Amino acid sequence: MSYAAFKMMHWATGIENCASGFITHSPAELAAQISPIQAVDLESEWPAKKRIGPIPNVVVTAANVLELYTVRVHEEDGRSSQLSSEPRNGGVMDGLSGAHLELVCHYRLHGNIESMVILSSGGDERSKRRDSILLSFQDAKITVLEYDDAAHELRTSSMHCFEGPDWHYLKRGRESFSRGPTMKIDPVGRCVGALVYDLQMVIMKAAQAGQGLAVDDEPSNMGASASVRIESSYIINLRDLDMMHVKDFTFIHGYIEPVMVILQEKEPTWAGRITWKHHTCMISALSISTTLKQHPLIWSAANLPHDAYKLLPVPSPIGGVLVICANSIHYHSQSVSCSLGLNSFCAQLENSLDMTKSNFTVELDAANATWLSHDVAMFSSKTGELLLLTLVNDGRVVQRLDLMKSKASVLTSGITTVGCSFFFLGSRLGDSLLVQYSSGTSLSTSVHAKEEAADVDSDAPLAKKLRRMSSDSLQDYTSGEELSLFSTTSNSSESTQKSFTFAVRDSLINVGPLKDFAYGLRINADLNATGISKQSNYELVCASGHGKNGAICVMQHSVRPDLITEVELPGCKGIWTVYHKSSRGHAVDALKPSKEDDEFHAYLIISLESRTMVLETADDLGEVTERVDYYVQGTTIAAGNLFGRRRVVQIFARGARILDGSYMTQELPFGVHNSDHNSSPDSCTVSSASIADPYVLLKMVDGSIQLLIGDLSTCTVSIYVPSILANSTDSVSACTLYIDKGPDSWLRRASTDAWLSSGIAETIDGNDGSYHEQGDIYCLLCYESGTLDIYDVPNFKCVFSCDKFVSGKSHLVDRSVREPFKPYQKIKSKTNKESTDLGRKETTEKMKVVELVMQRWSGPYCRPFLFAVLNDGTMLCYQAYLYEGLDSYSKNEEVVSPNNSVDPSSISASRFRNLRFIRVPTDFTAREEPSNMVIQPKITVFKNIAGYQGLFLSGSRPAWFMVCRERLRVHPQLCDGSIAAFTVLHNVNCNHGFIYVTLQGFLKICQLPSAFNYDNYWAVRKIPLRGTPHQLTYCAEKNLYSIILSFPVARPINQVLSSMLDQDIGQMERENTSSDDLQKTYTLDDFEVRLLEPEKSGGNWDTRATIPMQPCENALTVRMVTLFNSATKENEAIMAIGTAYVQGEDVAARGRILLLSIGKNGENSQNLVTEVYSKELKGAISAVASLQGHLLIASGPKITLHKWTGSELTGVAFYDTPLYVVSLNIVKNFILLGDIHKSIYFLNWKEQGAQLSLLAKDFGSLDCYATEFLIDGSTLSLVVSDDQKNIQIFYYAPKMVESWKGQKLLSRAEFHAGAHVTKFLRLQMLPTSDRMSATLGSDKTNRFALLFSTLDGSIGCVAPLDELTFRRLQTLQRKLVDSVPHVCGLNPRSFRQFRSNGKAHHPGPDNIVDCELLSQYEMLPLENQLEIANQIGTTRAQILSNLTDYSLSTSFL
Q1: Are residues 1207 and 1290 in the same domain?
Q2: Whole domain around residue 1097: which residue ranges?
Q3: Cα dist. 564→987, 1049, 1095, 1430 in Å?
C-alpha cells in the first residue's frame, strides 16, 4: 500500500461556535413583513406578542463545517398549517406555538474554524444594513463573508492574512501558540479586534456604508440592503503596552469611540503558589481611535483573581464589563465595581470590601454566557446548569450582583441570544437546542408556568420527526416543585425580580465526541446477504458525549427497512398505489383537507412484463385482477388519482382508462382522433407519463408530448396536443408536471407582475371553493439539446427557459435575464482550445436528461426542488429561490428560444424573471455501469413515510432523499441490490410504509425503522446513559455490548483522604486540616462496566449486568479477547477489563486485570457474568489484546504476554515500553503499540524462543491517539493519529538504507485530518464490480480500509489505492486547487499539510489524495469537467469511474 485516499463519510456535528445576526435580511426588511400581523395583535390582551420583532439568522460552525439557519416561527392561530395537527412541545408562548431552524446554506471549508463573530452595524430594528460573518483560521487568517441574494449563497467580501514571510516578525520567533486567532466585535460595528499569535492585536476598521475592499461587478446590491464590510486594518503589538499573558479581551458599550478591555495576567501563578500569589490578573480599557491608530489607556482595575478567564460586556444603558472567574464574578466600570463570591474557594483581598456571597455554591470555570435582557445574563456552567445573573441597578449604577439557579440543560460550547425571544445553546457534547424564552415579573406568573415547571425537555413530541429520546434535554433543576427563577431569600422588593419561562423549540442532533465505537450486527440483519448488501447488516455503536449528555449513538450509513412481508413476483416493471374516494359532495371534501394524509390506499397496481395485476389493499392484499375494469392485458406506464381522488387514471402504451373504484368510466385510445399526424406508430405510443390532478402529461416514444385535460364537472378527460410543440424539431427527452400547491403559490411570486400571472387559479377558486387546494400547474420540458423550459398549463406560455441544463451549472437563470454572475471563470487554456473542442463535442452530445421531477413539499416556507437524472446515472439536484433583481437588466429585449420560433407576443411579460435555481451538492454517486443499463433509475416522490418527506431513487444504487429543514439528506439503501420499482403504501397493517420490488423478483412491504432520526448525515439513534462513556466492545456470540461508564459523585473530603492515603499519613493530615474543611465535599468519578443488550422493538437498551469498580478505581479498557485454555485445549471468549487506582501522586500506581466469562442469555441475569480471574499488577493497565491465544497486557511502562490455564495467568514474555501505552493492535504475530509521547513501536512474538522482540520504531516524538494496521494485499503498513490532528502511515523496510538496518520505521504518507482521530477499525474493502476484481488479480482481494471516528463527531476512512488511480486523482487534485473557487478563499493544500506545532519534523511523502476536494469535481459544469479531464490527459468517464469505484468499495454500514 504505497498510496491511499482520505474520505469523510459523516461530517462533524459537534458545534463549537454559534452566533446570530441579520445575514440574509436586514431588520428593516423583516419588519416590513411582520408589521401587518402585529397590527392585529395590538387590540388583543396579549401585548407580549409584539415583543418578538425581527428574528436574526443563527450561524453555527462545527470543525470545518459552516451552517447558516433561519428561525421560522409558527403562529399560534395555525397560520402555518404544516404541523398544526400534531401537539407542539412547550405550549404556546408569546403567541408562538413553535419554531424551527431551517437551513439557508451550508459549506465544508478547507480549514477548521477557530472563532466566529458577526459584524453588525449595531443598528436598531429599522436598520437597512445586513451583517457579515467573520471567520478566523489557524494561524492568522480572517475571512469576511456576506450573503449574496443573487446567488443565494455566502460570498467572500474580504480576506485578511497575517502569515507568510512578510508577517514573520509577528511571531517573535515562536512556532507554537496556545490558541488560534480570537475575534471580538465593537457593539456598534465600528471595528473588529483579532488577537493573533497570542500578543498581536489586529484592529480591522469597518467601512462606512457603500465603501469596502470588494468591488461589486453587478448593480444588484443597490436594491437590496448592503452588508457591512471591512475597510482597512492595522496591528497593535500588546507587548509594547507591557502586556504579557492576555487571557481575553472585549469591546464595551456606551462610549463615543470603540473601547477595548483586555484581561491579562501580570505575572503568572500556579496551583502550588496560590497561598502566596493569588490576585494576579488585571483589566485595562483602551480607547481605540481607528483613524489616528492610537489607543490611550482610559481606566484599569488590578488585583483580580488568578482564575479570571472571560470578559462579558454589559449592554447599554448600564455599560461596563463582567469579569468571570472560576469562583467569583466581578463587575467593573469606569466609576463603580462590585463582586460576588460563588463558593468557599473565592479568595478575599485583605483591604477590600466584603465580598457578597451567593446563597448556593457553584463553580463557573468553562462557563458560557449571553444576555437575555439589558440587566440579566444567563450562564451555562460546566455541569449544564443554567444560572441567571441579575445586575441590581438604579438605572446606571450597579449596586450588587444577584445569582439564581434556573433549569438544567445541555453542556454548552457557546450560547447566543437570537433576537429578543430566543436563545441558542450550541454544544459539542450533546444536542444543540433552540429555546424560546419569555420574561415577566414574578408577581404575575405566566399562565404556562405550571406546565413549564415540569420539564423544559425536548423529549416532548417535537413534531413526530424528532421521535427520539434526547439525552440533552433541559431538565428542571428543582425536582418537580413549581419553578420560580428567582431566589426566594432575596431581600429586594418583589417587583425588581424577573421571572423567565423557557420552551425548547428545536434541536440539532450531534453524535460527537466519538471516543470509541464497535462494529455490531443490526437487530433486523439478514444473515444470508452477500457482497455489498451484507454491509446493511452492520451498524456502528459509538460511545459519545460527556457527563449527563453521555449516550450511545447507533449509526447506520444505509437504510435497512423493517420487513412486514414479502412475496416472490418476477418480472415486475412498476408498482403504484391509488386512493379511491366515493363521489361525495364538494362541501364535505372542502372540510377535510387535513385528514387527507390519513386516508388509506385502495388498490395496488403491479405492471408485469406482459400483463398488469390489481390488488386490493384492504386488511390483506388480495388479487382482484379479474373483477376490475383496469387494463390488464399489457403493461401499465403510470397510474394515479384525478379529480380530488374521486377517479383513478391508468395510462398504458396505446391508451388511458378512467376508473371509479373498480368500474371504468371512460376509455381513451391514443392516435385515433388525430389521424392526420399519425404517420408513425411511435407518435401514439406512450413512453412515460406524469400525473398532476387534473392533468396528465404524456411523452410519446418519438419525443412528442400530449396533454390529457380533465373536466371536473363530468370527471372525464380529453386529449390536447400543445401547438407550441407540434411544430418544433427538437424532441423532448424528459418532461414532468409541477403543482404549485398551498395557500400561497410559490412560483407566482417569481413573476415580475405577480397579479397578472394568476390566470388559472382564479377560475378554480370561483368554482365554489372546493378546489382551493389545487394550486397552479406548470409543465417542465427538457429537450434532447439540453434546454429546459417551463410552461404554464394549459395555455403553454413559456415562463422560464434555460440553455444547457444538462451541463449542471451552479445556477439556472431565465434566459431573458442577463446573468449577472459568472461563478466559474473559464480555465485558462488558450493553447489547446481546438483539441478540447473536439474532445468536448463527442461527449456532450451523448448527455441527455432521462428523468425530470420538480416537487415542493408541504410546509409554509418550503421551496421547490428540481431533480434530473442524466443518461449516465448522474443526478442533478437544484433548489429554487427568488431573486428580485433590478429592472435595469431584467427589462432587456426578450430572447426567443431557437427551437420553437414563436411570435414574441406569446412570450408575455409574465416570465419568471425572478426565479432561479441553485445546485445542491448531494454527496451521492448513482452512476450506472455501462454494462448493466437494464434498469433505469426512477424517482418516486413521497409525502409521508414514517413522518418524513422526500423522494426515493430506485435503480442499481437505490437511495432515500429526505427533505429535513429544507436540506437534502441522502441515505443509500444497500440491502437488496437493485430496486426495480417503489411506491408508498398506507393501510391498516402498514402505517405510512412502502412497497418495493427487487431486481431478483421479490415484492417487499416495509416500514422505516422508527427509532432512528434521519435528519443527520447518517441515520442515528441516541440511547441516553446519563454518564460519560469511555470505551466499549462488542461480544458477537451473545450480541451484547460492554461499556465503561463513569458518573461524578460528591464525597466528603475526609472519606476521600482516608481512602487515598495510608492510615498514619491520614492521622497527620487530619491534624493539619481544619474541621470546616472536612465538611466540604469533593467530586470523584465512580466507574462501572455495563453490559447492554440491543432491544428488539427499538426501545431503550436493557442493562443485562453491571460490574462496579472499587472506590478510586478507574476502568481504562474493556475488550473481548480469545484465549487458548492450556488445560482444556480449547479457545475461550473472555471479557478482559484493565483498571487503574487513582490515589494521588504519593501512592505508587497499581492496576487490576479482570477476566470475566459471559454465560448464556437464557439464564437469569444475576449470573450472566462470572469473574474467572482477578489480579492486581504494578502500573495502570491501559490496554489489553489477545495474541495467538495468549493475553497481552500493557501495565504501566511494560507489556507482558500471559498464558491462560483456565484459572491462572502466567507471564511468558515481556517488553519494556517507554512511558504509557495508549493502544495495542495485533495481526498474526505482529504487535503495533502506540505510546502517549513516544510514537509507535513495531514488535513481533516468537513462539519457539518465547520472546517479544522490537522490529522497528519511529524515532520522532509523537503523542499518539490511535493506531492500526493497514493491509493491502501482501503489504503491511502502520497507521497512527496524533494530538495535532494528523494521520501518518509508516512501513517496515529493513532492506532500505534509510531505515538504519531496519531499526527505523519509514514514512509512507502523512496527512492532516483536521480532527482528533480516536479509533481506527480495519474493514475489508468491498468488491466494486466483476470487471474490477478480474483485472486487478487475486492479491487485491485482500484489501482493507480503515474506518475512523473523531472527537468532532465525524467519521471517515483511509483506504489504499493502486498507483495508476492514485496518479490520476492526484493530478486532478492539483488541478482542482486552482480551478475551483474555494469558500473563504482557503487553500486545500495548506490545510492538508502535516502540522508539527513547532516540533522538528522531516516531511514525509505526499501519498494521500483528499476526496473532500475531489468530490467538487462532480459539482463542476460539464464543460469544465471535460476541459479539466482533457488537460490532465484522461477522460471524464475515467475519473468518475475511479471516484465511484472508491466510494463503492468503502460503502460500509
Answers
A1: no
A2: 1048-1216
A3: 12, 46, 18, 51
In a domain, 1084, yes or no: yes
Does one domain contain both 1358 and 1427? yes
What number is the average pLDDT over the span 388-400?
A: 89
| 1307 lies in the same domain as 1442 | yes
DSSP bridge pairs for 59: 19, 68
Task: Provide the grid cell at 446.
Answer: 405566566
Return phi, psi of residue 837, to 5°: -60, -40
Half-sphere exposure of 1212 (CA within 13 A, CB side): 21
Burial of 1144 (0-12, 13-18, 19+ CB in 10 A): exposed
Cell of 1431: 488537460
Residue (of 1065, 1084, 1060) closest to 1141 by Cα position: 1060
Rounded Cα distance, 1115 and 1097, in Å = 31
pLDDT in tens, 1297-1351: 999 989 999 999 999 999 999 999 999 998 876 444 434 444 467 899 999 999 9
What is the arithmetic mean of pLDDT over 347-375?
86
- 1186 inside domain: yes
Last residue in a domain, options 869, 900, 921: 921
**Pair 1046, 1089: CB distance under 8 Å:** no
Let me know: does 1430 contact 1389? Beta carbons within 8 Å: no
Q: What angle is formed at CA 967 by the lines to CA 962 and CA 970, rounded to 5 degrees?
A: 40
Closest to 405 measured CA to CA, from 386, 381, 391, 423: 386
Q: Is 1038 helix (H, G, I), strand (E, B) or coil?
A: coil
Answer yes or no: is 1008 within a domain.
Answer: no
- Dig out the grid coordinates for 1351 from the structure: 472527537
Residue 749, exposed/middle/buried by CB under 10 A (0-12, 13-18, 19+)?
middle
In this structure, which amino acid lies at residue 649?
V
Residue among 961, 953, 981, 959 at smallest CA distance from 972 = 959
pLDDT digits (tens, 9 = 90+) for 1118-1160: 999 999 999 999 999 999 999 999 988 888 899 999 999 988 6
- For residues 1281 and 1166, membership in a common domain is answered with no
Q: For cell 531496519, what's the residue? A: 1302
For residue 1329, the Cα-to-chain-centroid distance in whole angstroms is 31
Sign of CA dihedral 1269, 1270, 1271, 1276: negative
Last residue of a domain, one of 921, 941, 975: 921
- Predicted confidence band at 70 (pLDDT cuts at 50, 70, 90)? very high
Which cell numbers hold the place of 419? Answer: 433576537
- 1235 and 1195 within one domain: no
What is the count of structural domains for the chain? 3
pLDDT tens profile 1218-1261: 999 999 999 999 999 999 999 999 999 998 889 999 999 999 99
Q: How far is CA 343 from the centre of its chain?
A: 39
Distances (CA, A) of 770 to 640, 738, 763, 774, 964: 20, 20, 12, 9, 31
Identify the sign of the CA torsion 1276, 1282, 1287, 1290. negative
For cell 364538494, name the residue: 586
Q: Are residues 1270 and 1161 in the same domain?
A: no
Inter-residue contact 1021 to 511 (CB < 8 Å): no
The string of DSSP codes covering 204-238 is EEEPPTT--SS--SSGGGGTSPPBP-EEEEEEEEG
Q: What is the DSSP string of 712-730?
A: TTTTEEEEE--HHHHT-SS
Q: Is residue 618 part of a domain?
A: no
Separation of alpha carbons 17 and 22, rounded Å? 17
Q: Are strands 230-237 and 1130-1141 parallel, antiparallel or unpaired?
A: unpaired
pLDDT of residue 588: 40
* Cα–Cα nearest to 60, from 23, 89, 87: 23
Residues 1183 and 1259 in one domain: no
Confidence of residue 765 (pLDDT cuts 50, 70, 90): very low
pLDDT in tens, 845-893: 678 899 999 999 877 788 999 999 988 888 899 999 998 776 434 333 3
Q: Are residues 1418 and 1385 in the same domain?
A: yes
